[in-house]
Amino acid sequence: MRTLYHYWLCPFSRKIRLMLHEKKLEFQPVVERIWEHRPQFVSMNPEGLTPVFVEDDGKVIANGYPIAEYLEEIYYDPPLLGDTSTQRAETRRLVAWFDEKFNMEVTHNLVFEKTMKRKMGLGGPDSGVIRAGQTNIHDHLAYIGWLVDQRNWLSGHHFSLADITAAAHLSCIDYLDNVPWDKHPEAKEWYTRMKSRPSFRAILQDTVPGITPAAHYMDLDF
Amino acid sequence: MRTLYHYWLCPFSRKIRLMLHEKKLEFQPVVERIWEHRPQFVSMNPEGLTPVFVEDDGKVIANGYPIAEYLEEIYYDPPLLGDTSTQRAETRRLVAWFDEKFNMEVTHNLVFEKTMKRKMGLGGPDSGVIRAGQTNIHDHLAYIGWLVDQRNWLSGHHFSLADITAAAHLSCIDYLDNVPWDKHPEAKEWYTRMKSRPSFRAILQDTVPGITPAAHYMDLDF
């Protein structure tokens, strides 16, 4: 059975969980507490981070970028990057936008700072960092709103890994009730469509020990 | 003519420059000073960062990850990711290692801090950040040494985008004379091999206005 080592509020893990569900690939999710530095886990990924994917044949693939590209290569249908090189370039640009820029400016400031930082032995949350994340998120939600207004889905007419990646990050932040949806109705409409996809079900059922999700976290009509 | 908008000490731009040379694709390099926020450039890449690649037919591809994947898709020969899905996953794992982890722990602390930060209006260099980069680089050079001892090239028996990516970052740091080569002979031997590749020539001839390269920067025997 395919196995995915993940952590609940790791956006990179959520991206792969969503991708596996969209491609209808069965897998066993295993929660990895990376701060325990489990030798068996570190031997699979020297970087010590989730996600790590283990194929049926035992092949180990570490890091969200190689896993996503691998899944698209081997299990092409339905395509999640796009069916032309131009479309794939645009999807990948937005995947990078959310995994790099959004992560650095928003997800890390809010999710890592509030949940993982203490577990990693890096002290308590810094209110200045959290405030920066709360400020930065507005520009990104406005960008999502602009994109879906032009294109229906983030990278074009079709649902893609860009939508999955953005929603993976936002769902972690939404769990903590830190997404100002009321100020961004276009982004909210897009996220409502994301939440109603069957692939999103498992994500919405996550319960992180010691952290209660926002009251509306599971609601499809929020 | 294909065009690459790049900046001399941008490791992501250097990766694409090296990749284009390895694939023997002619292109016109254009230096982009991203801190000028040129509207025409921002319209090509809303993130406002280098590299941006413009194809012969006018197609625009922004960000190092989509450009690299596009070049490998369209101009496959010579393959730089690998010829099996397992090999490609390992190459991409190491590309992510250097573009994400190494960049965050080393390149950003040394190159951005010393050169770009002031241009971006973010104040002068922080000596604590620079010291952290100088400390962190040792573990990475040791990892490179370990990999090439096991495998000849970083991701396996063949030269790949992993070597290109690692060398793109290290060459920026070497320009500033901040790589402790004397403590890491295995990594130095590998970098000597990289420097002697024809694709590296243009990189070694870079001269950044106002920043003199290290005395040994261009030497193949350093």
From TrEMBL, chains A, B:
Location of the GST N-terminal domain: 1-79
Lineage: Bacteria, Pseudomonadati, Pseudomonadota, Alphaproteobacteria, Holosporales
Highest taxon, organism lineage: Bacteria
UniProt signal peptide: none
Cited Gene3D superfamilies: 1.20.1050.10, Glutaredoxin
InterPro entries named in the record: Glutathione-S-Trfase_C-like, Glutathione-S-Trfase_C_sf, Glutathione_S-Trfase, Glutathione_S-Trfase_N, GST_C, Thioredoxin-like_sf
Protein's recorded name: Glutathione S-transferase family protein
Domain GST C-terminal per the UniProt entry, residue ranges: 84-222
